[in-house]
Amino acid sequence: MKSYLDLLGHEVEDKVSDYKGVVISISYDLYGRIQADVWPRELGENGLPKQGYWLDVSRLRVVSKKPPMERPSFEQGKVAVGKKGPAKLPVKS
User: Is the whole model's pTM more than 0.85, yes or no?
Assistant: First the structure.
């Protein structure tokens, strides 16, 4: 399971559609699917992030060598016990 969490923050490309973006979330559902929420790096005309898409992890190819920001530790510390999260989502300017 940890290898899928390692996708967080990486830029990926969908093997099917060539859609590119950054993985901002990973989801495990009751039907056995493991999906990544992939948001494009570009901003929309209004200056806000464009819509992201949930894609099966099997369709993704990692295209970045390291994530643009440090990932939180989900195993220890404040994040692990649900006491910390970002006040604002980081947006590339």
Answer: no
List phi, psi (to 5°) of 57: -65, -25
| Rounded Cα–Cα distance for residues 72 and 86 (Å) | 10
Q: What is the span of the domain harbouring residue 11?
A: 1-93
21: closest CA among 44, 45, 39, 47? 39
**C-alpha distance across the termini of the chain, in Å:** 32
One pLDDT digit (tens) per residue for the chain, 93 residues: 468 988 999 999 999 999 999 999 999 999 999 999 999 988 889 998 889 999 999 999 999 988 877 777 777 767 666 666 665 666 665
Q: Which tokens in the block code for residue 32?
A: 């056995």
Q: Name beta bridge partners: 13.
A: 20, 61
Number of domains in the chain: 1
